[in-house]
Amino acid sequence: MSTLTETKTATTSNLARAKELWNEYLPYWFMTPMVLVMLLITVFPGVYDLYLSLVHYELTNPATMGTFAGLSNFRAAFTSAGALHSFGVTLAFVGGSLALETAFGFVLAALVTGVKSDRMQAFYRVAFILPMAVAPVSLATIFRIMLNSEVGVVPYLIATYTPFVAPNFLSDLPLLTIILVDTWNWTPFMFIIFYAGLSSVPDTLVEAAKVDGAPLWRRYVHVVVPYMKPVLFVAILIRLIDLFRTFGLVFSLTRGGPGTATQLVSINIFEQGFKFVDLGVASAIAIVYLVGIVALCNVLIAKVGFDGVWD
Amino acid sequence: MPSEHTRRNLLRAVGIGALGGLAGCTRGSMQSGGSSETSGSTGTGESGGGSDELAVPLDEYTGADIDWKQFEGTTINIGAVNHPWVSSIKPAIPVFEELTGIDVVWNILPEQQFRTKRLTDVSTGAGKFDVFFLDQVVNQFAESGWLQPLDPYFDDGSLYDEQWYKPDDLFEATTWQAHGGGYSDTWTGMPITVEVQTQFYRTDLYEKHGLEVATTLEGFRENAKTIHEEESDVVGTVGRGQKGYGMNIYVLNTFLREHGAELWENYPKDSGLDTDGAIAAAQWYVNLLREYGPDGASSQTWSDVLSTMQSGRAGHIVSDANLFWPNLIDSSSSDVADNVEIARVPAPESGQFGPNAYSWQIASSKNAKNSKQAFLFMLWATSEPTNTWMHLESDAAFSVRRSVWENDEFRSRVGEKFAQVSLESLEVAKPDPFDRKYPEWGQKYSEELQKAIAGTKSPEAAMKRAAEKAQQTFQ
């Protein structure tokens, strides 16, 4: 009898302990499925990518597939596979696009915030967001036609309504062209974030600066922008990461050309992996690229910081 | 050259940009219009035609000494790109199904997506596709051991009847490509379409300026020059300048071989790209486009070339797929429909006529479970009865069989001149040899050529660098 009671007591105590453990670690249990999914979709591909970068993995050369390659894929990436050049092109593209998108996005947001009528504000919000809704490949196709020197509307407008000679956008100014097209496509993203940020700037601060006699530009430089620093930083960081991933728009517009003038790292990786089917070299470039982007973002976060974002 | 743009031209260009189905002109490109369609257990598509009456009488096939019914009750999966060949053959699929008792399931995708899916299917050994479209990567696939060589099936008396199939009716250029362009001793697949390069010109401008159709490169250059200089809003010629192994080099290789040069004079040590003939060809093509071509010729794809000609803003297409023809003479999309004519590609005065040609083929994977059934399908699809029917009953004009091009009814439908020029060109066509590294060195070669067309490099320097890069891919 006593044994039964002891068993019951022990069971009750185990259940209570389990319940206690469950409650104690409740947030972690809820996180577990997500963590597992993340492991599956990020950690596993990452580790596999690292493995591929260290072995010979040219699909058309089955004899050497899977054999240890040391750092030869990395060496090939920088010598014959043009990784260095594509990193340079990517930095120019990302820098140019980010600067323009940030500037235009902020100016547009400031202008729309200044519109008095709510209806007109709503209209502008929708109108300025529209370009973001176009898929990159469709956008590239449209721009290819619009920029065509023979049948395109852009050279026509330049030749007709300006004193300038229309340039050959895709052959003479390829890098600038892809920057401008991306700017057209993604300025709305910056606009909408900045618009939200500007809407949150307290009127009292701006009014106070006004009363103190600060002109418009000073109110922006010394009041609005510092107040919006966290918003600006987050928007720039998100867009920066996204710009590094650009592929479809540029590939469809120029295929990385003329020559390799617009060969972004993403296009280079695609060519190495899917055209030349050398997954080892493609993975090596991807690893270097990933490490570079993570390092850059960490430096930015460390130097500029998220001050104010989490307050 | 001053430009004159009209709203109509712009709208037309938009329409042309949406064209997704021009046969064979999408190689090496990202043109991916069209639908993704599957059928059978996965989906939404169709598995053949819908009519109760068979398109082709069965006795066209039953006379062959082939055991058509040996795989009755099985199913084959076909992986295909969204291509006019598919729409042309689909109504005849019930004939195959009735003849063999094999069900056909289509998996149709836009070109780029198809390429990725095909690579995954064969490289992982999944073998989902029993039959699939194959292009320039033929030797990449063959040497990786992914393809099912078809010779054992050709040797199998129950699967093949030479007398009925008439393999000699296939153009040599197409069977050569089906043998890996000289890099395979066996059949790697069977050709389903062929296109050959031809010249297109404006008859109204020829009449106006008293020009003669050029058979030589020198004559062509003169014609292009006359139109370029005499017409205010028309360029002398257009041609592919965009990089990509199916783009600018696809056109240049015609002139390269006509100049007596050869790709891979000594494979894989000497690419032949820096020989005198190859450099002369590059100089001719680059200078032609730079002097008498449109601004920004280096970024022109096949669709740009076509749209510029259709909009009446070019005097010629120097050399491109004969399959442009239906689009050029279609008055609903072409301003020059009544004023365009086709001719053989010009050749150097001291050279030899030898236009480039290209075939899509269908092949089977080594891991496919139904390769024999797939072979029966390939045989049926490329046979004379099926090919003739396809070309008489649809808009198709890409037959790999000589008999179709000689068929009076077909010639009457597509036009005598088009048929004759295509036939003459196909008889002597010299296609590109796609070795296993072709996608890599072809891409680099095309990049160098694009730089020359863009004017950032001389043609000679570009070809020498192309030769170096091509040879480096084998080190």
TrEMBL record, chain A:
Against InterPro entries, the record matches this protein to: MetI-like, MetI-like_sf, Sugar_ABC_transporter
Please state every residue range assigned to the domain named ABC transmembrane type-1. 87-300
Q: Which CDD domains match?
A: TM_PBP2 (cd06261)
Family in the record? Belongs to the binding-protein-dependent transport system permease family.
Look up keyword Cell membrane and say if it applies. Answer: no
Please name the Pfam families in this protein's record: BPD_transp_1
Q: Which UniProt keywords apply?
A: Membrane, Transmembrane, Transmembrane helix, Transport
Q: What is this protein called?
A: Sugar ABC transporter permease
The subcellular location is: Cell membrane; Membrane
Ranges that cross the membrane? 26-48, 87-111, 123-147, 183-201, 221-241, 276-301
The superkingdom of the source organism is Archaea
Primary subcellular site in the record, as a coarse category: membrane
What is its membrane topology?
A: Multi-pass membrane protein
UniProtKB/TrEMBL annotation, chain B:
- InterPro entries this protein is in? Bact_solute-bd_prot1 (IPR050490), SBP (IPR006059)
| Matching CDD domains | PBP2_TMBP_like
PROSITE patterns attached here?
Answer: PROKAR_LIPOPROTEIN (PS51257)
Q: Where is this region: Disordered?
A: 27-56, 456-475
Which spans does this entry mark as compositional bias, Gly residues? 42-51
Low complexity biased stretches: 32-41
Among PANTHER family, the record links this protein to: ARABINOSE-BINDING PROTEIN-RELATED (PTHR43649), DIACETYLCHITOBIOSE BINDING PROTEIN DASA (PTHR43649:SF12)
Q: What is the designated name of this protein?
A: Sugar ABC transporter substrate-binding protein
